[in-house]
Amino acid sequence: MTSTYDRHPSPPPTSASVPADGVETFTSLDPATGDVVGVHPVASAEDVALAVERARGAADWWGGLSFDQRADVLLTWRSVITRRTAQLAELSHRETGKPVADAQLEIALAVDHIAWAAKHAKKVLGPRRVASGLVMANQRSTVEYKPLGVVGVIGPWNYPVFTPLGSIAYALAAGNAVVFKPSEHTPGIGVWLADKLAEVVGGIPLLQTVTGLGETGAALCTSRIDKLAFTGSTATGKKVMAACAERLTPVVIEAGGKDALIVDEDADLAKAAEAALWGGMSNAGQTCIGTERVYVHEKVFSAFVSEIAEQAREVRAGSDAGAQIGPITVPSQVDIIRRHVQDALDQGATAVVGGADAVGERFVQPTILTHVPETSSAITEETFGPTLAINPVRDMDEAVRLTNAGRYGLAGAVFSKRNGVAIARRIRSGMTSVNGIITFAGVPGLPFGGVGESGFGRIHGPDGLKEFTYAKAITKQRYAPPLNLTSFRRTAKDEKALNLVVTLLHGGKKTLRS
């Protein structure tokens, strides 16, 4: 493998784990304790440009391999990550503060996606026949999907393994090289992932991690990459789009959400409460596809609130082994959570669990608010903390209307025994689970992404593979055309025959069968 790559020589990727003397650095901190987890270099615009240049050579080599050869590499990488899950989970625990068990769950889902992308790329992206139609019946038509070249990925801190790999793995499976800029809060995880793939490919810079702050991400946006995949806030996503527009670099944006869970009158209330609690509180509520709003049919509202309140009292935030959720990873988010909770209470909401006093300096205890005004920031803005706003609704029409009223449209859930799928189809979002929570994220064959201010483009599934390619259409003449249409020697007889064929094909008025 290495000898093949020697046709495109490049220096090996620089490691972000051991900064050289004199290089500007930053530290990643344990959000639970404030202890230093690691020291990493701040990659400059020049560093990013060099990484992209190295990736270009790697992309030439990688794109020249067969689908089966690329799958073999990716499945080996998948196995390396799987065997070292404990090591990666511990690093994630230290950089994000999330419990080790939650980090392990995230890694398990991520490696499953790597495997799916590796195994399905050939079927999804390889050449396939396309019907040529009667007018072009002499043509053999095919379409295939070619790699773009170098893909930039800017990843988040809340799910620093699963989320970026949803872009990285699919971009690699499609034949691209990747330059990855992880969050400054979780740089060590980005370095770890790149190092493990480098082990598999003998140091070839197929996946490079460039660490740094916002300026490093901005440099990646304006570099000579062929596409950028971004996950983060809507506000930052808009800045990313503007920066990428300088070079007309296409983007995939997975931005914020304010997802709702709908509970119909026939729902299993215990299961719905369990799902809402997990959707709202897991990872300390720092989940873009997590639950922040709950709309419950008024006939079962009191029973649902009693059930979820009882379950919530068993959940605690802390840094000890008995805590189910960890700290707020980014300190500035605590002020936003506090503001949202206080605003809801000031406007008449009731705290049935937690409340303003639940918001500490590093940890936020589970907070459940009911009868929250729809105009409050707890309803209209992304909170990104372990809080839930639960409101009664007259019927499912009102539940759908309120769910769709916001500017986001990422995900959501519905609990109903009879009408769950019908309700789900009415929700304006990219993803909805029925009688489950966030289940769509664990299905590798399903597309992942949103609408509105939640972004656009898709990762995961066939759509995710195609997102990092361009369609290549090819026609090959099988025999001389009966009508010589693409020539200046076209005759009146040819034109008359064409008009006759088109009229027969399309001129008659037909109705669709019911």
From TrEMBL:
Gene3D superfamilies: Aldehyde Dehydrogenase, Chain A, domain 1, Aldehyde Dehydrogenase, Chain A, domain 2. GO terms for molecular function: oxidoreductase activity, acting on the aldehyde or oxo group of donors, NAD or NADP as acceptor. Keywords: Oxidoreductase. Belongs to the aldehyde dehydrogenase family. One of its GO terms (biological process) is aldehyde metabolic process. CDD domains: ALDH_DDALDH. Residues 20-474 form the Aldehyde dehydrogenase domain. This is Aldehyde dehydrogenase.
